[in-house]
Amino acid sequence: MRAPTPVLAALLVTSVALSTGARTEATGATAARAADGRQDRYRSLLKERRALHRENTILEIEAKSAAAKSPYIFLDLEAATLEFRVRGKVLKTYRISSLSTDSRGKEPVNAEELWSKFSGPLMVEEVQGGQPELVPPDPEAGRETGLLFSDPNQLREETGAVEVDTDAGILGIEAPTDYWIRVKEPLMLHIHSPKDQSTSRQALQRFSDVLSSIGSAVSSLWGGGSSARDADVTIWLTVEPEIAQQLHHSLLPGETIWLVPPHRARL
Predict the structure, then answer these.
(1) Within the chain, how many helices (H) and strands (E) appear?
(2) Other Cβ atoms within 10 Å of 161 Cβ, number
(3) CA-wise closest residue to 80 among 257, 234, 259, 241
(4) What does the radius of gyration of the chain's CA atoms come to, in whole angstroms?
(5) What is the value of pTM for the model shown?
(6) Does 16 reside within a domain?
(7) Looking at the domain assignment, is residue 232 inside a domain?
(8) Sheet hosting strand 187-192, strand order edge to edge
(9) What is the phi-psi region of residue 259: left when phi exceeds 0, alpha when psi lies from -120 to 50, beta otherwise?
């Protein structure tokens, strides 16, 4: 048998090299696909773990709040909603048009950063121009003593209920659509509505603002005044005028607001 010619030998060597390279490339592609699959699986499991951890955190908050008879509020910064709840049931949900850290709405709220600072309960201390009523007593306050608090004096002594200064409802003035809510933590919620350009609405709002300013000034003279400047962080909640008025009647001192943990929050 004759030895192969140099050209044929070169072709055979090239063919073997290409075959080996193809097998190596195929093996490398398979390994790359397997690695990508493992990474995708890891990302999926990590996302699922975060979702379950977030859901568990919300359930823990719900359990703490629902144990008492008092209403509480969930402020969802991502969904832009305010939910009033009692015993785990949603009583009313209010839509928020926008959430920002400035009055003009140009600086959106960073939900993750805000929740990291205020992940605990936010106790409402004062609502600007609050309604003329007693702060509702803690429904659990009489559990140990068995008292029903039928006597107003007894109610005040046992629960510490105090009168709330008001500007709303006086002389037929309706609830304001621009006011702040002060909580114990260094956070202020400022609720406001888009300005109504009608003359009657502007006049009514100016009158209400004047009364609110007078009430705040008088309250500050007696050492009970406060303002948005007391807070380190102020959140501006833009809502419709009707919603702003309903919230003014619904949010009362002593109620608790919880920030719902965002999906990307570090829990």
Answers:
(1) 5, 9
(2) 20
(3) 259
(4) 31
(5) 0.60
(6) no
(7) yes
(8) 89-95, 81-86, 72-76, 256-259, 122-127, 179-183, 187-192, 233-238, 98-100
(9) beta
Quickly state the pLDDT bin for 11 (edges 50, 70, 90). Answer: low
Residue listed under structure tokens 């205020």 = 118
Residue pair 91/85 in contact (Cβ under 8 Å)? The answer is yes
Binned at pLDDT 50, 70 and 90, residue 264 comes out as confident
pLDDT over 80 at 175, yes or no = yes
The number of folded domains in the chain is 1
Provide the domain limits for residue 126: 42-259
Q: End-to-end alpha-carbon separation of the chain, Å?
A: 78
Pair of tokens at residue 142: 């009489």
Residue 135 domain-assigned (yes or no): yes
Cβ count near 229 (within 10 Å): 7
The pair phi, psi for residue 106, each rounded to 5°, is -95, -10
Contact 161, 92 (CB under 8 A): no
| Cβ atoms of residues 101 and 236 within 8 Å | yes
